[in-house]
Amino acid sequence: MDRSKELRLNDQLFVSWAKPHKGKPVTKQRLSHWIVEAIALAYRSQNLQAPLGLRAHSTRGLATSWALFKGVSIQDICAAASWSSPLTFVRFYRLDVSAPSVARAVLGTLLSRDSTC
């Protein structure tokens, strides 16, 4: 925040650097678009097609499911996601990441790097 204080017109974390919106907060819609583009780029980098209906919100299920698969407790996942009950995760977000899938192919490189930490 200190490095960009000359640019900022407010205290939002994400601000635009390009004219005509320079220094103004980036909208939720723009951030969502960037997230979806980053996910799509990850798929393309593996010569795969991104899933239809991909949305920024899709990352929540994928991230929490991988956390569970990698050994994070359900209590820690719920606390990090601000869920009061594991039922929310089980009903709406849990994905089977143990089976071979496109997601595994895309995330495989990242996961192998992460396991060496």
TrEMBL record:
InterPro entries: DNA_brk_join_enz, Integrase-like_cat_sf. GO terms for biological process: DNA integration; DNA recombination. The keyword Ribonucleoprotein does not apply. Signal peptide: none annotated. Keywords: DNA recombination. GO terms for molecular function: DNA binding. It comes from the Eukaryota. This is Tyr recombinase domain-containing protein.
